[in-house]
Amino acid sequence: MIDTLTHLDRLEAESIHIMREVMADAANPVMLYSVGKDSAVMLHLARKAFYPSPPPFPLLHVDTTWKFQAMYELRDRMAAESGMELLVYQNPEAKERGINPFDHGPLHTDMWKTEGLKQALDKYGFDVAFGGARRDEEKSRAKERIFSFRTASHGWDPKRQRPELWNLYNARKAKGESIRVFPISNWTELDIWQYIARENIPIVPLYFAAPRPTVERDGLLLMVDDDRFPLLPGETPVERSIRFRTLGCYPLTGAVESEATTLSEVIQEMLLTTTSERQGRAIDKDAGDGSMEKKKQEGYF
Amino acid sequence: MTDPIYVTDALIAEDIDAYLAQHQQKSLLRFITCGSVDDGKSTLIGRLLYDSKMIFEDQLTALEADSKRVGTQGGEIDFALLVDGLAAEREQGITIDVAYRFFTTEKRKFIVADTPGHEQYTRNMVTGASTADLAVILIDARKGVLTQTRRHSFLAHLIGIKHIVLAVNKMDLVGYDKAVFERIVLSYRAFATEIGITHFTPIPISGFKGDNITALSDNTPWFKGPALIEHLENVEVAVSDDEAKPFRLPVQWVNRPNLDFRGFSGQIASGIVKPGDAVRILPSGKTTTVSRIVTQDGDLDEAVAGQSITLTLADEVDCSRGDVIAIADTPPEAADQFEATLVWMADEAMIAGRAYWLKLATQSVSATIQPPKYEINVNTLDHLAAKTLELNGIGVVELSTDKPIVFEAYGDNRTLGGFILIDKLTNATVAAGMLHFSLRRAQNVHWQATDISRDMRANLKNQRPALLWFTGLSGSGKSTIANLVEKRLHRMNLHSFLLDGDNVRHGLNRDLGFTEADRIENIRRVGEVAKLMTDAGLIVITAFISPFRVERDMVRAMLPESEFIEVFIDTPLAEAEKRDVKGLYKKARAGQLKNFTGIDSPYEAPESPEIRIDTTVMTPDQAADLIIDRLLG
């Protein structure tokens, strides 16, 4: 006996089912789009789920103004190609105060991303937001529901999450409450890469190795993506062949030295590598043990 | 013995494309692990992740540090720390929720539901089991079959898991003794047979030491296999079973990008579909054929159970979310009364008679539950009498829905037989249920589609059908005003029918008395008759006290929106009692009539009736004119 569907077929079918199910109860859904590889897969799945209609919701990019230039380029291209409306939100207060990752540390993430996201959801009145979080990313996320309930103030209360049986999702909510939906909860990093390869999904070129100007700081290899990068005394950008395993704000995202210029080589490196995906991100380590869980309770995705 | 399962690095390094091609073809197995707090469940999962290289160096460094700091293995690596996620749990040292883990081998990707074994968490285990193909039941070799082993096995069997692995853990602590293992297997078999588990796979393991996990262990030369991973990789899952069943597609979403395209999207619950297949839309019963299976990558020649697809149909038939597209010659049933097993999952106990939302596949209806026929003690499996179900209670109940749902027995089709109940006020998911069968009338009666529609019948009569539902106290003037209204309609050449409470009780409802249950049935029958008459195109007028709001709403829900017109004949009790046309109030006051509305049985006035008639300021003729104006205006 053979299983007709491969594991990628099953994951795809599950994600599409979840996206369509949201349309039954959502009044005003939105897809959070961060331009990374997980977002790329989410957008691709959404287009498949509703084909030949365009996905019946807009894309929302909660911008920090500190993303890699290559991310902005792909973002605008994919929005145009998918026929979806692209909403870009930048927290006006963070903008006014000039919040940046160099001078403000954790406040940067808090204001641009956590606060920015809450403000954007409130401004447009979105009741359901698709996010690209995966359960394999971090320990506290292993217990996250696919439909994750947030209070009117966007808080996450582990005690109020609903049991999810079979493929039945309870998307009912009271006025003011909202739901974050994670259609790719059951995908792993390897699944994401395999699917990108199988489906030929466009991703930001930064995932592939190329010679780029870098400096080494606090154990992270940072890319000097524009002239806002303040060099410390004695620092000179050095050209290295690097790529990124995960993409965020360029001053907070560590690169890895690599020669992998094709998808196969990227996957090869991933499989042979010895450090986990989020390690290149400064964010998990801000508050030591359990920091992602704390962020989630505060409303970070 | 060598360990062939994880020797992949060589291929990855040498020929990544060959490796990827091979891994594109992997299948998926979902399983759960069940055991009590000390059975070493988290350790086993941590071990599976570790052995399949799902743990990276930075995580391992953190793990080693944590093991020394808070570990329970005397400084050795404590795999349990890898999987205990939430901060609160870590402090308590137990898992309190369902967590999902992922690992992959050469042949399969695995999704593991880590479900807690603690007494009060039946809910979590049922949740984790609902998506699993296989259950690993963990037993501590030192303790043997315990109460919780029975509980876990019963729940796994209840939820329909066909593959059970009995993992006898901590074999290292009993000196890898064959006799210990065999004694446990024997005692488990006796119990398993009793609850209907006919087949299980026993494996002696040590999660901590790694024996018989990825490869057979030298410590148990008497055990001929398979090792745990080997079994998980090779066990045949039920996917092909689902494909062999008749085709069913619960419609999730109607895809309508423009006037030329109308597609029906959903995930196939069972069977196979091809263009040209004759299909039936349930519950309407209309038949048509499949035109195309549309995807972004081009049309498909066939699609199978588990795939999310979009179909187009040859004819313009009514079909929307909640309907089921099924193979025409063996369609599922539609019914509105069922027997089911319920697992109660909320802190607030079940309330018999209260309406909950019931969600089954893509159908959402209102459902009421009868008091349990019995509750099942999950430890002894005894059937107990119960008035309700508390958190983690499991019982068999009868329930009825406000409109028919398309279903199959849970044992035949998990998608069309499994449901959740949702509290209408808090929106919490309060129960999971599994349908056994439908009750009485609805069984084996399919909806027959007729060619002449209700609109066509109404058009022939040049009128819009409606139901004028008069409600009010006995003696309020319902029958008098209703009669005047019908006379006016008749003069206007409109086709009407007046269903009078007393008259109906002489015929259709002569078998009913005046208990609460009989009064509800009285209204239900009248509602059904009135509905048939509106289907025939008539303007129906009913005059019943109909004291309970919930029954009036039940009738309202039977009809298309705006066709139910509630007419509240508002006469104060004192006034009605003063008139006492039939002398009934006098009898009730004298105790000769029981359950008389207004005297010893309540009247729930409508909160927002379509029409309210205050008889203290209006004559019956004025009232009739007002009603006609509202109806036709």
From TrEMBL, chain A:
Limits of the Phosphoadenosine phosphosulphate reductase domain: 28-254
Pfam families linked to this entry: PAPS_reduct
Keywords, comma-separated and alphabetical: ATP-binding, Nucleotide-binding, Nucleotidyltransferase, Transferase
Pathway of action: Sulfur metabolism; hydrogen sulfide biosynthesis; sulfite from sulfate: step 1/3
Gene Ontology MF, one: ATP binding
Reactions that this protein is recorded to catalyse: sulfate + ATP + H(+) = adenosine 5'-phosphosulfate + diphosphate
One GO term of the biological process aspect: sulfate assimilation
InterPro entries: PAPS_reduct_dom, Rossmann-like_a/b/a_fold, SO4_adenylTrfase_ssu, Sulfate_adenylyltrnsfr_sub2
EC number: 2.7.7.4
Signal sequence residues: none
Region entry Disordered, spans: 278-301
Subunit structure of this chain's protein: Heterodimer composed of CysD, the smaller subunit, and CysN.
Protein family membership: Belongs to the PAPS reductase family. CysD subfamily.
Protein role: With CysN forms the ATP sulfurylase (ATPS) that catalyzes the adenylation of sulfate producing adenosine 5'-phosphosulfate (APS) and diphosphate, the first enzymatic step in sulfur assimilation pathway. APS synthesis involves the formation of a high-energy phosphoric-sulfuric acid anhydride bond driven by GTP hydrolysis by CysN coupled to ATP hydrolysis by CysD.
Protein name: Sulfate adenylyltransferase subunit 2
Lineage: Bacteria, Pseudomonadati, Pseudomonadota, Alphaproteobacteria, Sphingomonadales
Encoding gene per record: cysD
UniProtKB/TrEMBL annotation, chain B:
GO term, biological process aspect, one: hydrogen sulfide biosynthetic process
Organism: Sphingopyxis witflariensis
E.C. no: 2.7.7.4, 2.7.1.25
Domain Tr-type G: 26-241
Catalytic activity: adenosine 5'-phosphosulfate + ATP = 3'-phosphoadenylyl sulfate + ADP + H(+); sulfate + ATP + H(+) = adenosine 5'-phosphosulfate + diphosphate
Pathway it works in: Sulfur metabolism; hydrogen sulfide biosynthesis; sulfite from sulfate: step 2/3; Sulfur metabolism; hydrogen sulfide biosynthesis; sulfite from sulfate: step 1/3
Complex and partners: Heterodimer composed of CysD, the smaller subunit, and CysN. Sulfate-activating enzymes, NodP and NodQ, may be physically associated.
Protein name per UniProt: Multifunctional fusion protein
Family: Belongs to the TRAFAC class translation factor GTPase superfamily. Classic translation factor GTPase family. CysN/NodQ subfamily.
An MF annotation (GO) of this entry: ATP binding
Keywords per UniProt: ATP-binding, GTP-binding, Kinase, Multifunctional enzyme, Nodulation, Nucleotide-binding, Nucleotidyltransferase, Phosphoprotein, Transferase
SUPFAM superfamilies: EF-Tu/eEF-1alpha/eIF2-gamma C-terminal domain (SSF50465), P-loop containing nucleoside triphosphate hydrolases (SSF52540), Translation proteins (SSF50447)
Binding site for ATP: 472-479
Gene3D superfamilies: P-loop containing nucleotide triphosphate hydrolases, Translation factors
InterPro entries in the cross-refs: APS (IPR002891), APS_kinase_dom (IPR059117), CysN_GTP-bd (IPR041757), CysN_II (IPR044138), CysN_NoDQ_III (IPR044139), EFTu-like_2 (IPR004161), G_TR_CS (IPR031157), GTP-eEF1A_C (IPR054696)
HAMAP family the record matches: Adenylyl_sulf_kinase (MF_00065), Sulf_adenylyltr_sub1 (MF_00062)
Binding site for GTP: 35-42, 114-118, 169-172
